[in-house]
Write a structure and sequence with these properties.
The complex is a heterodimer. Chain A is mainly alpha-helical. Chain A has one domain (about 1-95): Helix Hairpins (Orthogonal Bundle). Chain A is about 80% helix and about 0% strand. Chain A is built from three helices and no strands. Chain A has helices at about 1-20, 25-50, 50-80. In chain A, helix 1 packs antiparallel against helix 2 (about 25-50) and helix 2 (about 25-50) packs antiparallel against helix 3. The longest helix of chain A has about 30 residues, at about 50-80. Chain A is elongated. Chain B has helices at about 1-25, 25-50, 50-75, 90-110, 125-135, 140-165. In chain B, helix 1 (about 1-25) runs antiparallel to helix 2 (about 25-50) and helix 2 runs antiparallel to helix 3. Chain B is globular and about 55 Å long. Classes of the chains: A mainly alpha, B mainly alpha. The interface between A and B is large, with 68 and 83 residues.
């Protein structure tokens, strides 16, 4: 049941990253994907009675924190340039 | 009995709040829905007996990451009205991809799962087991994580420095 829940949360996060337009909402959906992975890791750690999954969850916490710490300044810079949070406004960034 | 009931309650809350993230319009409401998901997941972790991770979930995710996110929303949102249009043109392909992904994942996991249902009566390891295992077996990862954090701090400073140079 919990593995299914973690898969559903991961899929919802993926869907959010694809379909939403707001940059901050997309960042939050990425956090949701990480949370789904964390839930599966904790469930496996609890089922197999090993601490490896819990340690991995701890490392994922740190990676998520670092990701946010870098992503928010980048979003701040982007918004300073065009004053808009809509990702469609930044299509000129490609290439 | 009460444990199973609470587990279902927290799992349902997490799923509903995660689904609400997709349909809510304003970024602040999305942030609150994400915080609700994280708190419900912390409840699930605590019910599974992994209390250390539940505490870290509340302290690091809800306490630090989400507060940072809310500050960013408060800083940026006043100038921007683009949230009134929720979805990009990728809505239909996105739904198709997510459903296909979920189907493939469910099919793959279903075949290799050792037992079908997770119960709350499994192993309970406290903070002592966790810490001993962490610093005995995974000390290298711990050190690498500290290097990663230093790199993240330097990168954030560099990004801000680029912005300052652009302004003149």
């Amino acid at each position: 049941m919990l593995i299914g829940l973690s898969a559903a949360i991961f899929a919802l996060g993926l869907l959010g990253v694809i379909v939403r337009r707001n940059v901050l909402v997309m960042l939050m959906c990425m956090e949701l994907m990480l949370n789904g992975v964390n839930l599966s890791l904790v469930t496996f750690a609890q089922q197999t009675a090993t601490a490896a999954g819990a340690v991995l969850v701890f490392l994922v916490f740190v990676v998520a924190t670092a990701e946010i710490a870098i992503a928010i300044p980048i979003v701040l810079l982007l918004v300073k340039r065009k004053n808009v949070l809509d990702l469609d406004a930044y299509t000129d960034l490609k290439g | 009995m009460i444990d199973t009931l609470l587990l279902w309650l927290f799992a349902g809350t997490a799923l509903v709040a995660a689904a609400a993230m997709l349909v809510l319009r304003h970024p602040m409401r999305v942030a609150l829905a994400l915080a609700a998901t994280m708190l419900a997941l912390a409840g699930v972790y605590a019910l599974l007996g992994v209390h250390a991770i539940a505490i870290f979930q509340v302290l690091i995710y809800v306490g630090a990451v989400m507060v940072f996110m809310v500050y960013a929303i408060m800083l940026l949102d006043v100038r921007d009205r683009s949230f009134t249009r929720r979805f990009s043109w990728l809505l239909v392909p996105g739904v198709v991809v997510a459903v296909a992904f979920l189907a493939v994942l469910a099919h793959g996991v279903w075949q290799v799962l050792p037992e079908p249902a997770a119960s709350t009566a499994g192993a309970r390891f406290g903070i002592q087991t966790f810490s001993l295992e962490f610093l005995n077996e995974y000390w290298l990862h711990f050190e690498l994580v500290s290097v990663l954090l230093v790199a993240a701090v330097v990168a954030a400073l560099a990004v801000l420095e680029v912005g300052r140079r652009d302004r003149g």
